[in-house]
Each structure stands twice: as structure tokens, then as C-alpha cells.
Amino acid sequence: MIEIDALTKDYLELTVVDHVSLTVADGEIAVIVGTSGSGKTTLLRMINRLIEPTSGTVKIDGQDTRAVPAFELRRRIGYAIQGHGLFPHRTVGQNIATVPTLLGWDKQKIAARVDELLSLFQLEPAEFRDRLPSELSGGQQQRVGVARALAAEPRLLLMDEPFGALDPIIRAKAQSDLLAIQKRFGTTIVLVTHDMEEAIHLGSRIAVMDKGKLLQYAPPAEIIARPATPFVAELIGTGERPFRLLSLGKVRDLVEPGPAQGEPISADASLRDAYAECLWSGREVLPVIDADGKIIGRIRRDDIARRAERPQ
Amino acid sequence: MSSIAITDRHPTFAIDKLGVLIAVLAAVASFLPFAAFRANRIVLGEAKGIFAALPEWEAAVLAVVLAAGIGIALFRTPTVWRLATSLIVLALLFIAIGHAGTFLTPPGDRIARVSPGAGFWLLIFAFALLAADAIARLKLKPWTRLGVLGVVAVFFAVLLGSGTLNDLSILREYFNRGETFWREAQTHLALALGSLAAATVVGIPLGVLCHRNSRLRVPVLNVLNAVQTIPSIALFGLLIAPLAWVAANVPGASAVGISGIGAAPAMVALFAYSLLPVVANTVVGLEGVPYAADDAAKGMGMTDWQRLVTVQFPLAFPVILTGIRIVLVQNIGLATIAALIGGGGFGVFVFQGVGQTAMDLVLLGAVPTVALAFAAAVVLDAIVEMVSPRGVERED
Ligand SMILES: Nc1ncnc2c1ncn2[C@@H]1O[C@H](COP(=O)(O)OP(=O)(O)OP(=O)(O)O)[C@@H](O)[C@H]1O
Ligand SMILES: [Mg+2]
Q1: Do residues B56 and B130 share a domain?
Q2: Which of B65, B130, B135, B395 has a CA that sits 20 to 30 A from residue A134's CA?
Q3: Per-residue pLDDT of chain B (396 residues; tens, 9 = 90+)
């Protein structure tokens, strides 16, 4: 658990982060969104003391972060920096092994961990382990950057726009990889992005920042339904609100028994995708299949549309 | 575009730009004196052309080879040919000048001197240029370049060992002072390498300090820059007085070899000149370390020292090594001046030679100095390339 209390950073006259307080529970993904220069990176870097706060405290599992030397604190916290920051003179394997090596793991354990992480990110270990970062594509570099942050199995992971440079398809892939890994290890994640879509997709809670201040910190549904300020509403995009709500729900939630015609849709698809399919194919109902491809019922367009209305 | 198309259609007649310069140089040089004959060490010499300096058939062979070499240099020929030609011509020139020594010296005469003439030196220059150009164009791997250097070294070892060059004036001078030569060679190397080692040991930490503390950087680099602008002879001279004072007033100082003249001030002066390239390149190298990589290192919990050793230093090392290369080549040359204040080294022969107007003696000091500097440059260039991490973009 991370408890941030009245955290403030001043650069001379300028207050870049202004009395921000928030708590991230174990296993949660807190996503910080905001426009450029709103203080997201500064807030994130104060958690592992890459930036020393002017005032306020950060506690991790109840312990003040100033109680241990900064370098020891950082070895316990995974950190994926804005723009990967791989060591250009070290191979992919050596890059990933950085923190385990600092922690003095034995060689075999490190090698096994490197291969495990590479496979997890769909990079064939034998092929990629000994390459240099310059011999990877931008997307592969970013995945290695995230793998490196995860190497020592940190319980807490800080990520600064980790998927910034990826094309939409690879980005979606990387996001679902991250969610799978997070589920598997129960990692607590604080992630910075300026993409609202990504925040809603990944976040269990979203922190909206503007000019150093935390405007709202709430689960995505609530942020969409009840934006705390006009700025938050604007960031979500008024015209996008119903669709953002839909993207939070799954087809599975609205399945009912009964027949339907045409191409079926997966129970794990988002309601947004299902609604789009209804509109595009001009159908009132869609058949729903589960992961094995078996038809388990149907979903109705009207039911989906009702879910897009402002919650009461 | 159209001119390229035309040359492409007639590749055999295409002229090489640098080749023109080399061909003109070599052609002119062929008619300049190849060797000079003097009845003794200090009288003026008689110039001898190629045909006067060598037995007739040897001169003819040399002339034909030179003509062929000029042709290959002039036209656009495969680069490997150009390299092979330049090396063959250079080898033949050295053998020929040795033979000229034997041919021109009357049998049994130990006083007469035969030395290479302007034509010889110019030919060497022209074909060395051809070799250097070919090596650069071939983009040889560092190991291959070291291999070429090794072959050249073996060639000269064999040539000297076989006695082919024994009748040349420079070797006559050498035989007159064999032991002194090797002693001065040792001194020369000790001066150049010792000052380099000291500059590395002091300069790299100083560079790291300057990198970390920006208030220190400007004054330190300014002082070192100012030192570089002092003419070398003046710097050597300037050190005489303070070091003499130290020797006279600090107990034990003279016992460890410190005095106003001799090796100590020479060492100090070379050290002072060496600092700037080492410090400046360390600072530049560290500044070139990508910010993101350094930041990631910090973010993953490396201590300052671990960051310096595992990230900053390896990434800066090629640039630092370039500084060391500059210093080594510079010091091998500058160490010559140490002789002026009694510091020894090859400069001893140069300045004695100048004093006695004996050019042969000057050469005995100058040729090994140039050869050493050249070899040092080749070896360190190769090392710089070998330690530069693959895939790390460097702009220099
Ligand atoms: N060392 C510094 N000195 C002075 N001002 C700084 C410093 N570092 C950051 N700032 C300022 O603090 C503000 C917040 O910066 P920060 O990097 O936290 O923004 P961000 O929200 O991460 O932006 P982006 O989305 O562009 O990455 C900016 O206005 C920036 O100019
Ligand atoms: Mg940022």
C-alpha cells in the first residue's frame, strides 16, 4: 500500500506538485492523467525519491520512504521511465538483469528470470537475450524496459508513459500483457499517461491532475459519471462519455438466453465493441459465444444503450 | 548525374582525384636526387638521381615499378590493388636506398656518408599517402589494421637485421652510439608513457569531478587550456626555477631525482600538457551518456559509484580513450624537447645534430620518434574502435 500525504514540490516560486494526497491499495492500478506539465512525472518520481519532496510524506506499507537509503528503496520498487532508458552498451539480457544483479541473486536464478520475462513479453529468449537495445524495434525496446522494471518481482511498480511510443495494435497488446502480469503477481502499479482511453482501460482508480493539483481520485466509472470539475469533464470529452462507460463493461454482464442471427460476439468483448457491431451490422441482437466458441445466449442493443446512460 | 554515367561506361579511363596528386608528386620526386653522397659527415653532399645512385639494372627495375605505381595511383583501380602497390613500392624504395648506400660508398670507406635525398623522402610520402588512402577506403577492421602494422614492423626488423641499410648515414650514426641510442630510447618512452600514466591517473578523476560539479568545470578547463597555449620550450624553461628551488629547499627532494634540469621538469611539463585532453575528453564523454540511461540507473537503485562504474564510464570510455590517444601521440613528439633541459630522450640526437650541423644525427633522433608516434596512433585507434560498444551512436 502507498500512502501519499500532502506531497508538495516547489521549484523556487513555482509549485509543481501541490499538496497531493492519495492512497493506492495493494494490487490496485492507479493511473495518473493530466495535460503535459501538470506534474505527473514529478509526483511519480517523488515516490521513489528520484525527486526529494519539498514537504509531505510518502509511506509504503506503513513505512516512511525516508527511513531507508534512497538506493535501497529504489531496488524494491520497479521503475519504467518515460522513453525506456535502456543501457545502450548492455544486451537485452543484461539490461533486464540489472536489479537482480544489484540484489545479488545467483546467476542461474537471474538467467531463468530473464528468460521467463522475455517469454512473458513475447520476445523469444534465444533470439533476443543477447541483442543490444539498438538492434530492437521501438516497441520491443519499450517492452524490454517494462520487463527490466519487473525483473526483481517488485511488489510496487512505477511506470511513466510506458506505452507512449507504440502503435495502437502493439499498444493494446502491451496493455493486456501488463494486465495479465499484474493479475498473476498482484503487483501494485502507479502508471502515468496522458491518454484517457488508456487510463480507463487500465486503471482501477484514476487520479486527474492539473497545474500540480489533484482534482479527482476515483474509480473510472465515477470519474466518467461524476467529474469533479469542468476540467475533468473536458479531459474525458463530453461527447465520449457514453462510450467510455460502455468500454468499462463486458458483454458477459448483459447476456440473456434466447436466439440471435449472424456473426457472434465474444462474452469477453467490451460493451463498446458489441454496440459498435450492432450499429455496423444493423442488428438488434447478437449471439454471444464464450472462450470455447460455444453459444451461451444473446445480447440486445437496447440493453447496451441503457448502460450508456448517466448512472444515477 | 550525367558525368557519373559517362565515367561508369568507361571505368578503365576514370581518373582518381587523390591519385592525380600522388602521381604528380611521385613523378616529380623521381627526378629529384634519390640519395646524397658526402665524403664525410659534415661536408655538403653531391646529389645522385636514381640511375646514378643504383646499379643500372636495379635502377631500371625501380623506374619501371615506380611508373607502374604511378599509373595504378592515377587511374581508378580496385582499392586492394592500390594498397598492395603502395606497400610493394614502399618496400622496394627502402631496399633500394639501402643498396644505394652500398653502391655509392667506396669499398672500405668508413667516413663517407650516403643519406636519402629529397626525391626518396618525397616518394615515400607519396606512396604512404596512397597506402593511407587505400586503408581508409577499405574500412579495415581494427585487428586487420594492427596486422598491417605488424607486417610493416616485421619488414623493418628484417630489413635492419639483414644489414641491407647498414651503409646509410643514419645507421652509421647509430653504430657510433649504439648503447646511447637504446638508453635514450628508454628515457624517451619513460617520459612519454610516465607522463601519460600520471595524467590519466590524475585527469580522469579530475574530469569526473568537473562533470559532477559544474562550478569547478569552467575554471579547471580554463587553466588547463591556458597551460596548453604556453609554447613548449617556454614551459620547460619556466619549470627550471621552481624545481631547482624545490630541490635545494625541500629535504629529500634532490635525493629522489628532482632538480631544476633533467627528467623531472620534463616530466612535469609533459604532464601539464597531457591534462587538458584527458580532463576535457572525460567531461565530454560523461556528458554524452544518454540522460535516460543514467536516470534509469538511478531509478533502479544503483549507488553513485555503481552508476559511474557500470553505466557512465563504459559509455564515456571510447571518448576518454581518444583523449589518451591524443596525449600519447603528442607526448611522444614533445618528449623530444626534454633534451633541451637535460631530460634525455631522442631529442638528444636531434639537438646534438643541429648543433653539429649533422643532419644524419638529427634523423637518428627524428625517425624513431615519428615511427613511434605513428605506431602509437595506429594501435590506440584500433583499441578505441574495439572498445566502442556496438550499436552506440557516437558523433565526433
Ligand atoms: N528541475 C526542474 N526545475 C524547474 N521546473 C521543473 C523541473 N522539473 C520539472 N519542472 C516543471 O514542473 C512541471 C511539471 O513537470 P512534470 O515533468 O512533472 O510534468 P508531466 O505532467 O510529467 O508532463 P509530461 O506529460 O509532458 O511528461 C513542468 O512545468 C516543468 O517545467
Ligand atoms: Mg512526464
Answers
A1: yes
A2: B135
A3: 444 444 444 555 688 888 889 999 999 988 898 988 888 777 777 888 888 888 888 889 999 999 999 999 888 888 888 999 999 999 999 999 998 888 888 887 778 888 888 899 999 999 999 998 998 888 888 898 899 999 999 999 998 888 888 888 888 888 888 888 899 999 999 999 999 999 999 999 999 999 988 888 888 888 888 877 777 767 766 767 676 677 677 776 666 666 666 777 788 888 888 888 999 999 999 999 999 999 999 999 999 999 999 999 999 998 999 999 989 998 999 888 888 877 888 988 888 888 887 788 888 899 999 999 999 999 988 888 888 766 554 433
Residue A178 has which C-alpha cell?
A: 501488463
On whether residue B329 sits in a domain, the answer given is: yes
User: Do B198 and B52 share a domain, yes or no?
Assistant: no
Q: Is B150 a member of any domain?
A: no
Q: Measured between alpha carbons, how far is B17 from B76 in angstroms, rounded to an integer?
A: 9
Rounded Cα gap, residues A248 and A270, in angstroms: 7
B157 part of a folded domain: no
CATH assignment of the domain containing B240 = 1.10.3720.10
pTM: 0.78
Q: Are residues B200 and B330 in the same domain?
A: yes
Closest-lying ligand 1 atom to the alpha carbon of residue A45: 18
| B295 in reach of chain A (CB within 8 A) | yes
Ligand 2 centroid to Cα of residue A39, in Å, is 7
Residues paired with residue A29 on neighbouring β-strands, in sequence order:
A189
What residue has cell string 506505452? A163
Q: How many CB atoms lie within 10 A of CB B143?
A: 11
The answer, for A114 touching chain B at a CB cutoff of 8 Å, is no
User: Is there a single domain that holds both residue B101 and residue B184?
Assistant: no
What domain count does chain B have?
Answer: 2
Coil, helix or strand at residue A136:
coil
**B185 and B112 within one domain:** no
Task: Examine residue B124 and state whether it is found in any structural domain, yes or no.
Answer: yes
Q: Is A171 helix (H, G, I), strand (E, B) or coil?
A: helix
Best residue in B291, B294, B298, B392 to probe A by mutation, most A CBs within 10 Å?
B298
Domain that holds residue B335: 178-387
Chain B contact set for A99 (CB, 8 A): 300-301
* B331 and B257 within one domain: yes
